[in-house]
Amino acid sequence: MEIHSGRWRRRKDEEGGTMGSYATFRHLLSRFLNGVEKILVLFGTTLFTAVVLANGLEIFLRTFGFRSLFWIQEFTVVSCSYMVFLGAAILFKRKGDILVSFVYDRFSKGAQGILSVVVDGLVLIFLGVAIKASYSYLRFVYGGHTQTMKLPVVLVYFPILL
Fold it and tell me: Of 5, 111, 118, 135, which has the fewest CB atoms closer than 10 Å, so is most exposed?
């Protein structure tokens, strides 16, 4: 909404209609989530590249008789934890599903819709169980640290709650 001569006026959207406050909020929220998605994709891609390069360096060093990098295993575990759970958030935003297409394609259109609802329900149940287990585990290991990098153990399981 805009203020014009002391009165509220509705703003015009792209099609020439007026945008109410709910539509404006959804538009702003959509833009915000698109920005967050771009940041998560950049973060995930950078993290994946770092994991591949670090593990490649580890393989090279161990192959040619040099000392092993002691922090590689923990770095990989923490990084994969973030990549999996933040990647799942991106899939959810893009309306991607975890479906086996060769089974899914054999069903009729109506059955595919029902199957999608069932799979989404199962994924939500799994996420609920994972979040509850993660929260319980976070309370259990709250004061703990990893062995080599001395990172808080909470850091490993934090993306599950995100």
Answer: 5
Q: In Å, how far from its chain's centre is CA 78?
A: 14
Cα angle at 38 between 157 and 160, to 5 degrees?
15
Domain that holds residue 132: 97-162
User: What does DSSP assign to residue 143?
Assistant: T
Helix (H) or strand (E) holding 3: strand 2-4
3 lies in some domain: no
- 3-class secondary structure, 98: coil
Whole-model pTM above 0.85?
Answer: no
Specify the number of domains making up the chain: 1
The residue among 2, 4, 5, 27 whose CA lies nearest residue 14 is: 27
Euclidean distance between CA atoms 32 and 94, whole angstroms: 14
Whole-number Å distance between alpha carbons of 122 and 128: 10
The residue type found at 62 is: R
Are 44 and 86 contacting, i.e. CB atoms less than 8 angstroms apart?
yes
The answer as to whether 137 is a domain residue is yes
Mean of per-residue pLDDT scores for the chain: 77
